[in-house]
């Protein structure tokens, strides 16, 4: 079950909200926990073990948090923390990285022992829904309790409600316990203003996902189906712009829906995007994109390693570790490692002086990001390294020997088919729509726009124009 489905919108959500607001406020966390487990179960019906794993991880992290809170011996507390982190990351490694790790080991041994056949071990496990997100939440909880920044949660139901809260369970934003602890223990009374704001955020997010992201996804899929070695240079550029818009509106739309649902339940979930496509540098971009992931790596990796309050060599090492881990977090593949390495190099160059040059030349910095953003997403979105090389020769024909770069028929066809959605992608990547909505907030005009977006999105869902959220696979 996903937010952008008729079942969720017209069945699960109304029934859940009915139960949530008709029951006593003291029992709402129990309703939230149970409802979230039902929501998660709907997504793992073919792998029921994943529900048991999820419950096991909740129980273990709850218990370790309680032990950390009551234990005073520093050595024992450190052992408990390391044990908890190992337990959490063990499952993430097993499901997400084990096969890739085994393939790398087999390839390495194959180079050393070239005369012997090296068998590869593959478990071929399906990635549990949302494991990358809820693992990071549990890890942040244990570390914060260990540091003494938050007290351990005493109620198992309240802790379960925090971890499993369905608005952010399967694709973020990554919510720390400290950020919602007060709301979790509050009565969270019904508020017409909060309900109205939550519904609007949900509808705007639904529109971004269904009306925009899915259409750009269709364009990118068409480019892929043609074959990278058969497309012209203009279509290659159109393709990576389409993918850039798809991943943005897909994930931003989901995050906005999550924030809206959080408001409906009385929680203020953290903002995850701040118009990243108007960024003036890649450093600025990653302050605006997937903000909660960046904050997680800053607070639990970068700063503990010393941050920038160390020697230049160690500072560069710290940045390198963060971006390699950021790449690996997104997926087990060489393209994600290459993507993380690429971002490390770009960000380091900006921090060492190029960023100051960009600040002095507004025209150059916007042109720089106009091309750099889709190029970076190209490395992210194409999983095969050889295909990345082929695509680069299509984007930059002087890098290879292309016989079709002059042929523009394919480009014009897709430009015509998607003539309305392409300019919409550029428009809604700016801050203009947000400014307009802010000016007409709580007016009849805003209500009309919301109704139009909602029913247009419902129509698109009804006729089958829907795709799974991209970040479910990460």
From TrEMBL:
The keyword Transferase applies. InterPro entries: Ac/AlaTfrase_AlgI/DltB, AlgI, MB_O-acyltransferase, MBOAT_fam. Keywords: Acyltransferase, Cell membrane, Membrane, Transferase, Transmembrane, Transmembrane helix. The chain crosses the membrane at residues 6-23, 89-113, 125-143, 159-180, 315-330, 336-354, 366-385, 420-437, 444-465. It holds the Pfam family MBOAT. One of its GO terms (molecular function) is acyltransferase activity. One of its GO terms (biological process) is alginic acid biosynthetic process. GO terms for cellular component: plasma membrane. It is a multi-pass membrane protein. It is found in: Cell membrane. The keyword Cell membrane applies. Signal peptide: none annotated. Belongs to the membrane-bound acyltransferase family. This is MBOAT family protein.
């Amino acid at each position: 079950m996903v937010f952008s489905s008729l079942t969720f919108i017209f069945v699960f959500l109304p029934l859940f909200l009915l139960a949530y607001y008709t029951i006593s406020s003291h029992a709402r966390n129990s309703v939230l926990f149970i409802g979230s487990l039902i929501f998660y179960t709907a997504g793992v019906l073919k792998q029921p073990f994943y529900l048991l794993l999820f419950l096991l991880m909740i129980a273990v992290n709850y218990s370790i948090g309680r032990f950390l809170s009551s234990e005073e011996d520093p050595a024992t507390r450190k052992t408990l923390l390391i044990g908890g982190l190992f337990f959490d990351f063990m499952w993430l490694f097993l499901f997400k990285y084990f096969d890739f790790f085994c393939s790398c080991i087999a390839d390495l041994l194959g180079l050393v022992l070239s005369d012997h056949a090296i068998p590869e071990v593959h478990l071929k496990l399906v990635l549990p829904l949302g494991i990358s997100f809820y693992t990071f939440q549990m890890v942040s909880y244990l570390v914060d309790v260990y540091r003494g920044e938050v007290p351990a949660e005493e109620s198992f139901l309240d802790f379960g409600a925090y971890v499993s809260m369905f608005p952010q369970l399967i694709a973020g934003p990554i919510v720390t316990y400290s950020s919602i602890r007060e709301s979790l223990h509050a009565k969270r009374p019904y508020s017409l203003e909060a309900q109205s704001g939550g519904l609007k955020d949900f509808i705007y997010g639904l529109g971004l996902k269904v009306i925009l992201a899915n259409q750009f996804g269709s364009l990118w899929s068409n480019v892929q189906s043609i074959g990278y070695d058969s497309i012209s240079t203009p279509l290659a550029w159109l393709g990576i712009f389409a993918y850039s818009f798809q991943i943005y509106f897909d994930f931003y739309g989901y995050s906005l829906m999550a924030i809206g649902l959080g408001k409906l339940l009385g929680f203020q979930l953290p903002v995850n995007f701040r118009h990243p496509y108007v960024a003036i540098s890649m450093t600025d971009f990653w302050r605006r994109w997937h903000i909660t992931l960046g904050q997680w790596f800053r607070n639990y990796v970068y700063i503990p390693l010393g941050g920038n309050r160390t020697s230049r060599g160690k500072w560069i090492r710290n940045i390198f570790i963060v971006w390699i881990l950021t790449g690996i977090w997104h997926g087990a593949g060489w393209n994600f490692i290459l993507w993380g390495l690429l971002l490390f190099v770009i960000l380091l160059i900006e921090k060492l002086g190029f960023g100051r040059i960009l600040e002095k030349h507004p025209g150059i910095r916007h042109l720089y990001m106009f091309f750099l953003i889709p190029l970076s997403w190209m490395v992210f979105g194409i999983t095969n390294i050889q295909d990345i090389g082929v695509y680069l020769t299509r984007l930059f024909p002087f890098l290879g020997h292309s016989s079709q770069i002059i042929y523009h028929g394919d480009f014009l066809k897709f430009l015509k088919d998607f003539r309305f959605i392409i300019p919409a992608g550029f428009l809604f990547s700016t801050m203009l729509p947000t400014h307009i909505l802010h000016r007409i907030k709580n007016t009849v005009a805003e209500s009309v726009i919301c109704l139009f977006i909602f029913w247009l999105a419902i129509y698109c869902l009804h006729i089958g124009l829907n795709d799974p959220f991209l970040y479910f696979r990460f």
